[in-house]
Amino acid sequence: MIGPNWRRDYSLPESVAGNHGESAAMDERYWQGLGNAYEDEIFDSAASDLRGAIPRRLDEFRNRRRDAIDFGCGVGRYLGLLAPRFRRVTGVDFAETLVARARARAERDGLANVHVRRGDLARLRLDVEPASFGVCANVLISREAAVRAAILRSIKRYIAPGGAVLFVVPSLECALLSNRHLVEWNRRGGYSPAEALETGIPPSRRTARELLDGIIRIENVETKHFLREEGVWTLTHSGFECTDVDKVEYPWSTEFERPPRWMGEPLPWDWLFIARRV
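^ that's the sequence the OP posted. Answer follows.
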């Protein structure tokens, strides 16, 4: 059976999104054990950005007299993009393993204006002044709306009034399109229409409920995906004004192993939102 190769695996444990207690401790152990596999296991939106939407948007806010924060910096993939564009860059992440790797990356690349700190995004307390710009790339992916809301409150706390944030989130529309392509791929491969349909998102009451809430299971990890209008609504009701929406487009190889040429346009994408704190 042909199947999707979910290379676009965000797979952020709930601790990164603000879960606490025993589950958080287990998730921290997960991150500590992930180690060097992070680079292969977790999707890199910046590196896979086929048409340069992310650096182009960052250039719109470039200001060497102002500071920026990367909320959920992981191993620091965005820090090298932010460092030459802003005076001082602070990266924040939950797991000490990732914080250590982000610091090592910044040191290796000579990013003297980058500082990385450990912090829980759902109850962030940092000894830093609010920045004029922020990045939050594929962090708002917890299945729990309350956790996502807590992260947004933290981001708002550390962005100065009028400051802007670049959000990147998984697209629900794209996930459904990818599912449709997978079904068609199997149909063309000789499966009956009914059999091909079974190779897509599993049809069950559980998956139907999850789908209505924008939850798609990637490697059996419940991952929040957003409709375009849902993203705008969420930011608007979290104290931000959404000023622009864009796509970060990727090759089909981010979705499938050896995708067929007929897939073509439209390419898979994440939503990119520009929002200002009001």
